[in-house]
Write a structure and sequence with these properties.
GO terms for molecular function: siderophore uptake transmembrane transporter activity. It is a multi-pass membrane protein. 10% of the residues lie in helices and 38% in strands. The chain is mostly beta strands.
Length: 822
């Protein structure tokens, strides 16, 4: 605080005036425009935020990820009831591809769902990503992301030793407060020292001038972050020497100082009532004009004030009561109305929910009913109606490797407004950490932030957003003539055939370019849609094309997404129990197969030879029927999870196909693809409609040798109905008609847990579930209370209970409890 103390002694106070008073300055045109444009920009591009709670941080294949999505409006964090669709992707880090895509139905700002992890998923690090259609108008940095780890029970690679690799040269970044160093003005410089994997490192060091003088020393406080003060002198260049805990030393050049300009310093620590903002400049005495300071939070202005640049030091005081809890931004515009300095500050008000979980007793027996009272109050202790999700897990299997991992509070107030990785975000919200607020202030100085760029805000008009707010599913596309020219306006009829045999008929008209869209559709699972287009009275000589349901590109921006590192004995119980459970499931399936074999007809049916084949028996064959095409966008989707040893990963439009064992030093060797016996590219396979496919042959190993070396990765042979010599051409499609299958909302699954107060045959099985209970939709009443109950398993362990949730007016909260099972 030496720099702050010096400022107190040297300069008097100039209070920041409210917006209306600030705008009475003689040259107030820019201040008025600044507020008007900020409000207009926030209205044109309102922000949304998404958070997803899962039942645990890691899984084995065969398990289910239970999840609940929370949707909030950006400025006030109110429950978002506008967007009705939530997209959730499971991304594999190594391949950087989407392996699972789900569409969840959101109601009143909440969406529940689940992802069943197929056996073909490789072990390693994954990312759960969630977003709305509206959020696709903005950088993907602000999509919700959460790292997950998927393990296998039958491989040694499922565990890592946890040994620390040798540290290579660290990445050290220096951040002058406000954004720039100015000669002759003392400033604070924050720094961050991170390892090549992105983890903060303990470090210390000193700064030397080009003259060889020691200017200052420094030491990191938390997770490799800290700051020091420096007063740059003209003609001098500065170098920082950074020492690591292993004794190594590295040197880095500090940012060059400018000869003249402004310096912005924010004191968010020393005063409980106000935030103090210092503005200093070294402009020539002859320079005249006013600078403008704006404080805003999540697109809403807090205060705007102006100062005369002839005063070389000005101090503004802004009451903390004016700010909402969370991150606020201070931007300084110079006398030419250009943004020159910017600084973030976190305003803590402890305006959060208190979620208390009270078990009926501290200790329970195996398979005994556990009852938990949930009580939610606000900061003043008054009861609150809130919507919560709760997970109860076996603490001996679900190891708490990251005690300060992100939760709803830390994400909504901190992580959702910052780019990049935040290590241990929960640390900054634990009152037991006495240095958390100073450390949080340093985080604000080092963490990159660009929710919007001021030049975009100050435009007179804004481009129309590409993606609309979705209050339901969207069916869009284009009608074209056979020569691909636009047909003008076309009458359209849509027949939606729901899985429950009900049907909806809609009519509409394409625009002059043939574009059409049907919005607000609501159906579960995959649903067939027939579209008929007519020009004029009876002319149906047109083609109908649907827009591809393409997911946003994959960008691993929040790195590192390393898998959780375990010691070899930490997961022994979890993997053992998971393997036992999977063996029981396999045995049940084998028993069912034996029963089926006892009643099958023994005579082998003769299969007629297909003249399109040059080989004999295929390794595997899939006969495509109507039930299989539901939800499949491409032919390769038909293979997912249906053929042992064939792994199809990635999105539908950009998949990777690997037949087990097909790899070399260069990576995956994809199979040879054929259509009706003719070799084609993978891209050609993706253009074939799933409704045109008769069957698919898979050739592995020796069965593929007839195709030569080009089939070293095996063969995927697709045979179409039209290519068959027995094809009935009377079944050709009607001109101007398209039949397609659309993916719908995921059907909400109910978490299954045994009820041991009822006698059932399956209760004889051993019970060592890692997740004992998952309750995604707990609603407290006017008294702020709710009841939750579940049954303990056979394990003598500790049950960890975590509840997260929010009130409809935007206040988040997290509650924890534990009970013993003896």
């Amino acid at each position: 605080m030496n720099l702050l103390s010096a400022l107190f002694r040297q300069y008097g106070w100039i209070l920041a005036v409210p917006v209306l008073l600030a705008l009475r300055f003689t040259d107030d045109t820019f201040a008025v425009r600044l507020v008007e444009r900020l409000r207009a920009f926030s209205t044109a591009y309102p922000k949304e935020k998404v958070y997803v709670q899962t039942d645990k941080p890691y899984y084995t294949v065969g398990e289910t990820i239970w999840m609940k999505g929370y949707l909030f409006d950006g400025p006030l964090h109110l429950a978002d009831s506008v967007s009705k669709v939530l997209y959730v992707d499971l991304l594999q880090i190594e391949s950087q591809k989407i392996v699972v895509h789900r569409i969840l139905k959101a109601e009143n700002g909440y969406a529940t769902g689940a992802i069943v992890l197929g056996d073909s998923l490789p072990a390693g690090g994954y990312v759960l990503r969630a977003y709305t259609g509206w959020m696709r108008n903005f950088p993907e940095d602000y999509f919700f992301t959460k790292p997950l780890t998927i393990l296998h029970t039958d491989t040694e690679t499922a565990l890592t030793t946890g040994s620390t690799p040798a540290v290579l040269q660290p990445d050290v970044q220096f951040f002058p407060e406000g954004g720039q160093l100015i000669n002759g003005i003392e400033s604070r410089v924050a720094f961050k020292t991170v390892s090549p994997s992105g983890k903060g490192l303990e470090s210390s060091g000193f700064v030397l001038s080009s003259a060889g003088d020691t200017v200052t020393g420094f030491s990191a406080k938390h997770r490799g972050m800290g700051y020091f003060s420096i007063k740059p002198e003209p003609g001098q260049h500065y170098t920082a020497f950074v020492n690591l805990s292993d004794g190594s030393r590295y040197q880095y050049a500090l940012p060059e100082a400018r000869p003249e300009g402004y310096v912005l310093l924010v004191d968010n620590i020393t005063n409980r009532e106000n935030v103090r903002v210092y503005v200093r400049n070294n402009k020539p005495a002859s320079a005249q004009g006013r600078f403008t300071l704006i404080a805003q939070s999540r697109g809403k202005e807090i205060q705007v004030a102006q100062g005369d640049m002839s005063k070389k030091a000005v101090v503004f005081q802004i009451s903390r009561q004016l700010f909402p809890e969370g991150i606020s931004q201070f931007t300084l515009f110079d006398e030419t109305n250009q943004p020159v300095c910017e600084r973030l500050a976190f305003i803590e008000k402890k305006d959060r929910l208190n979620i208390r979980l009270k078990p009926s007793k501290p200790t329970f027996g195996a398979r005994e009913k556990v009852q938990v009272e949930v009580a939610v109050t606000d900061a003043s202790g008054a009861p609150v109606r809130a919507n919560l999700s709760l997970a109860a897990t076996d603490a001996s299997q679900v190891v708490e490797k990251e005690p300060y991992a992100a939760n709803l509070v830390s994400y909504l107030l901190l992580g959702s407004d910052l780019k990049g990785l935040i290590e241990e975000p929960g640390y900054y919200f634990d009152p037991a950490n006495k240095e958390r607020l100073p450390d949080l202030d340093v985080l604000m100085m080092t963490q990159g932030w660009r929710q919007f760029v001021w030049k975009d805000v100050l435009q007179d008009t804004y481009p129309v957003p590409e993606h609309l707010v979705e209050n339901g599913l969207v069916l869009s596309g284009q009608v074209v003539r056979p020569n691909q020219k636009t047909p003008g306006k076309v009458t359209l009829t849509f027949l939606i055939m729901h899985p429950d045999s009900s049907r909806d008929v809609l009519t509409g008209e394409a625009d002059e370019n043939g574009r059409f869209g049907v919005y607000g559709l609501k159906f579960n699972d995959s649903t067939r849609v027939m579209i008929q287009a007519v020009m004029g009275k009876n002319n149906r000589n047109v083609e109908i094309k649907l827009d591809n349901l393409v997911n946003p590109t994959v960008k691993m921006t929040r790195i590192p997404y390393n898998p959780i590192v375990f010691q070899r004995d930490e997961l022994a119980d979890y993997l053992k129990r998971a393997k036992e459970y999977q063996e029981i499931e396999r045995q049940i399936r084998r028993n069912r197969e034996i029963l089926l074999k006892e009643v099958t007809v023994r005579k082998k049916r003769e299969v007629p030879m297909d003249s399109r084949k040059i080989y004999g028996q295929a390794s595997n064959t899939i006969k495509v029927d109507q039930t299989m095409t539901g939800g499949a966008q491409t032919v390769l989707d038909l293979l997912r999870g249906r053929v042992a040893g064939v792994n199809v990963s990635g999105s539908s439009m950009n998949p990777t196909v690997q037949i087990r064992g097909s790899a070399n030093f260069a990576g995956v060797v994809e199979p040879l693809f054929t259509i009706d016996g003719m070799p084609v590219s993978k891209e050609s396979i993706l253009t074939v409609s799933v409704y045109d496919v008769d069957y698919i042959d898979v050739l592995k190993g020796a069965a593929a040798t007839i195709f030569g070396s080009r089939a070293s990765g095996g063969v995927i042979a697709v045979y179409t109905k039209r290519g068959s010599p027995n094809y009935d051409y009377s079944k050709e499609k009607t001109p101007g008609t398209l039949v397609a299958t659309l993916p719908g909302f995921q059907t909400v699954r109910e978490f299954y847990a045994p009820r041991y107060d009822e006698n059932k045959p399956e209760h004889v099985r051993p019970d060592y579930r890692p997740t004992l209970h998952w309750a995604p939709m707990i609603q407290t009443g006017d008294d702020g209370k709710a009841q939750v109950s579940f049954f303990a398993s056979d394990a003598r362990t500790t049950i960890r209970i975590v509840a997260e949730g929010a009130s409809t007016d935007g206040h988040p909260g997290v509650g924890n409890a534990s009970v013993e099972v003896k």
